[in-house]
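sry for the spam today, last one i promise. struct tokens for design, 272 residues
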């Protein structure tokens, strides 16, 4: 993206596939391959001119676990993996369904982060015991780029582990589900500057002054903020792996009606 003071122009400099890999019956994201392609794209961008800032958005719900030195413990598991089968029902046996929704405002889908973590906790997964922190996917790539370990709000909201009104981790609920809350990083707002590029990228042509800035790291949040919505009653339709239709509203809409309809309240830019 380039800005000349009056107009924003967008140009693709590098495209690459995102191919899941199944190992021993578990479907993973190839996070290191993805980061290699990200760095290749940044180098191409830097070769074309000085880069001011870098931001990453991704799909929601998936996460990585890191050790105390910030190293990846294992490749992140794909949300389409079968480990979450039955986990919505298990969660609702521990915390009532209406209470989970009243706290989070997020629709019930087995792919949500909270059910992935519940599956790990229920299986006594050693990764949970050895992990020092959890980072959502875009936050993982921001960590690889800058060294920062934070949770961007819009992406964290997809987890169904955020208190929608407090806009912080729903720790009491998570503790009742047996999910370790010590892993959860500080939540920060989109627009936060987390630092400069580190490692070899810091000295690459065109990248020496680039700052890593968190956008709406959930791809839907970035799509919505880039859509010229005429008013609060103008709907958006965002089509990717699936289609999402909704409104940009100032506060979450959480009621018996939205629970019955399984509507979701995902975080947006500027507190929307």
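last one done:
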């Amino acid at each position: 993206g380039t800005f000349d003071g009056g107009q924003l122009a967008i140009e693709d400099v590098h495209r690459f596939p995102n191919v899941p890999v199944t190992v021993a019956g578990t479907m993973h994201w190839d996070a290191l391959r993805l980061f290699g392609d990200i760095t290749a794209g940044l180098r191409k961008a830097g070769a074309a001119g000085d880069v001011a800032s870098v931001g990453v958005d991704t799909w929601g719900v998936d996460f990585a676990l890191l050790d105390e030195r910030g190293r990846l413990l294992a490749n992140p598991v794909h949300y389409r993996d079968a480990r979450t089968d039955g986990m919505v029902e298990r969660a609702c046996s521990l915390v009532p369904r209406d209470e989970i929704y009243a706290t989070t405002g997020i629709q019930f889908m087995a792919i949500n982060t909270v059910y992935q973590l519940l599956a790990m906790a229920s299986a006594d997964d050693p990764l949970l015991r050895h992990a020092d922190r959890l980072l959502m996917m875009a936050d993982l790539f921001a960590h690889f780029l800058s060294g920062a370990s934070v949770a961007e709000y819009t992406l964290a909201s997809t987890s169904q582990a955020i208190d929608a009104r407090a806009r912080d981790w729903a720790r009491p609920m998570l503790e009742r589900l047996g999910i370790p809350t010590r892993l959860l990083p500080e939540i920060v707002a989109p627009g936060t500057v987390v630092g400069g590029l580190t490692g070899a990228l810091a000295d690459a042509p065109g990248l020496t002054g680039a700052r890593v800035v968190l956008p709406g790291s959930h791809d839907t949040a970035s799509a919505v903020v880039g859509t010229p919505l005429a008013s609060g009653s103008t709907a958006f339709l965002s089509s990717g792996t699936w289609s999402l239709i909704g409104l940009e509203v100032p506060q979450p809409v959480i009621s018996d009606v939205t629970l019955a309809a399984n509507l979701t309240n995902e975080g947006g830019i500027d507190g929307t």
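Residues 31-47 form the longest helix (17 residues). ok im logging off now
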